[in-house]
Amino acid sequence: MNIDLTDTTTRRIQESLTQARHLMGGPAVGMVLTLIIVTDESAQYDAVRAATEAAREHPCRVLTVISRDARGSSSRLDAEIRMGETGPGETVLLRMYGPLAEHADSVVVPLLMPDTPVVTWWPGGRVPKVPSGDPLGALAARRVTDSYAARDRLGTLARLAEVYRPGDTDFGWTRITNWRSLLAAALDQDHDEITVGEVSAEPDSPSAELLAAWLEVRLGIRVVRTVSDGPGITGVRLTTRSGDIEVSRHDGRVATLSRPGQPDRQVALHRRPMADLLAEELRRLDPDEVYQDAVTRFAKDLTAATTPQGPADTGGGGTDGGTGDGADKGSDKGAAGRAGAAKKAAPGKRSGSAK
User: Fold this and answer.
1) φ and ψ at 208, to 5 degrees?
2) Which residue of 175, 199, 242, 271 has the fewest CB atoms within a 10 Å radius of its CB?
3) What is the DSSP string of 94-123?
4) pLDDT (0 to 100) of residue 320
5) DSSP, residue by residue, 254-279
């Protein structure tokens, strides 16, 4: 069922939702959350389609906020209600014109499902400066961004790291869930001490930066970044005395797991569509502490990379000198500069942080 409302109000939208629900015999008690999508007209189709697919696993009310002509026109609200077409959820497209677009939260709040969590998602490159401080982000327990779709991928991830608040997450992190699971399973088996790590990926990959940061945090090692032709992450190498533990994927579909003294093993490791990423984020509505550790580490490494360093022969007097913190210093040095060095390195060449 589709209902189009032109120059409408939130009250009329709510009444239309109730009427449509009664006509279809589907009460709203099955809704588990409200998903707010903040997008524009060009990206709304793909975003709504992904949300509709994710709603099959998580029945929800999807409120899609589309800003139109924020300047030079009078305030107006148009709505399109979709119900029962492809799943149990409800989808409302809210097109806001004029000054109303600057106050989207005043339209969204009356339409939230009562007593259910709220997730706000900014698909594409629409990443707010501070997700938790955005009026629509402040309504949500979870705030989902996608730094990979931004024009400046690593710069966007760095900014998100600086303003991180519990409940924030990014699809750059969600994309490496299967990588992390595979590596964790490989490391559950007996192995020699890991001394250094390496992550290879296409240039400007937020997922590669977060995977490298996660490995540094979890293993306490130095992880360097190398640049490949992609797609996405193409390999992870963990060096031990007896040989390398390596996962390589060059076609975006199947990976090869190599371990010292064992035959290579083929493992499915597909690049996941947007709907799968969104569905994963909707499964967990509490703060992701592991992501917090990784993105905090990324921010720390980036700060170390941009902090002016003293002369190499100054001895132990400066902030980079002294004793007792060699492990931390080495780890920072290995990862610091990943964002800049990996960006500048030619494909197939080791980035500056690997030196």
Assistant:
1) -65, -40
2) 242
3) EEEEGGGGGGHHHHHGGGSPTTS-EEEE--
4) 38
5) EEEEEETTEEEEEEE-PPPPHHHHHH
Domain chopping of the chain, boundaries: 2-171, 172-297+326-355
Q: What is the CA radius of gyration of the chain?
A: 23
**328-341 pLDDT, tens per residue?**
433 334 444 444 44
The count of C-alpha atoms lying within 13 angstroms of the C-alpha of 193, restricted to the half-sphere facing its C-beta, is 4
For the record, the structure tokens of 13 come out as: 């939208």
Q: Which fold has domain 2-171?
A: Rossmann fold (3.40.50)
Helices and strands in the chain: count of H runs, count of E runs: 11, 14
User: Could you give the CA distance from residue 95 to residue 260 in angstroms, rounded to a whole number?
Assistant: 57
Supply the pLDDT for residue 351: 38
Q: Dig out the tokens for 347 from the structure.
A: 């494909």
How do 168-170 and 222-227 pair as beta strands?
unpaired
Amino acid letter, residue 51: A
pTM score: 0.84
- What pLDDT score does 31 carry? 84
Residue 157 to residue 113: CA distance in whole angstroms: 31
User: In Å, what is the CA distance from 40 to each residue of 96, 166, 237?
Assistant: 10, 26, 40
Per-residue pLDDT tens digits for 244-265: 999 999 898 999 999 998 999 9
Q: Specify the DSSP element, H or E, that contains 49.
A: helix 44-55
One-character DSSP codes across 234-249: EEEEEEETTEEEEEE-
Question: What is the number of other CB atoms lying within 10 angstroms of the CB of residue 105?
Answer: 15
**Is residue 255 a contact partner of residue 248, using CB atoms and an 8 Å limit?**
yes
Round to whole Å and give the CA distance between 199 and 107: 44
Low-confidence ranges of the chain (pLDDT < 50): 312-355
Peptide bond into 27 cis (omega under 30): no
Q: Which residue has the tokens 């099959």?
A: 56
